[in-house]
């Protein structure tokens, strides 16, 4: 007798709805956390259409709860008077020990909580939250220089390999 597996299709990917590419440029990501998020009905419908923006969003810890601020989820196109406010504050779901740990790290140093990615996992929306320390301008320039050098090296190696084979 065959048993039916839970969790959808075999090898199903977690579809990414939105990423915050600017965060990895502006911050050094020290640690990441996967959190749930509390939404209303029209928000998840709008997100399933693939509409969201993580630009300028951040998380705060208030009274032992983590809140995501400035996440822009546009109004649902087929919604009516029940539509949500696009930039409302949304609660993130983490374990108590994770919240306490994050609160200590944010309070101690010059660190912030930045959302890195929104994605669906088993039909539920998840937020990848990063504990981040800000980069200085010279750090950003060093990263750009290092990437350009690596790109040049791989390009040159590719040419040499083609020259040997050809």
From TrEMBL:
Instruction: Give GO terms for biological process.
Output: trans-translation; trans-translation-dependent protein tagging
The superkingdom of the source organism is Bacteria
| Native species | Corynebacterium aquilae DSM 44791
**CDD domains in the record, alphabetically?**
SmpB
Q: Does the keyword Transmembrane apply?
A: no
The protein's role, per its UniProt record: Required for rescue of stalled ribosomes mediated by trans-translation. Binds to transfer-messenger RNA (tmRNA), required for stable association of tmRNA with ribosomes. tmRNA and SmpB together mimic tRNA shape, replacing the anticodon stem-loop with SmpB. tmRNA is encoded by the ssrA gene; the 2 termini fold to resemble tRNA(Ala) and it encodes a 'tag peptide', a short internal open reading frame. During trans-translation Ala-aminoacylated tmRNA acts like a tRNA, entering the A-site of stalled ribosomes, displacing the stalled mRNA.
Main localization is cytoplasm
Q: What is this protein called?
A: SsrA-binding protein
Q: Name one Pfam family in it.
A: SmpB
Recall the GO molecular function terms of this protein's record: DNA binding; RNA binding
A single GO cellular-component term from the record reads: cytosol
Q: Which family does it belong to?
A: Belongs to the SmpB family.
Species lineage: Bacteria, Bacillati, Actinomycetota, Actinomycetes, Mycobacteriales
| Position of the signal peptide | none
Looking up InterPro entries in the UniProt record yields: SmpB, SsrA-bd_prot, SsrA-bd_prot_CS
Entry's localization field: Cytoplasm
The UniProt keywords, alphabetically, are:
Cytoplasm, DNA-binding, RNA-binding
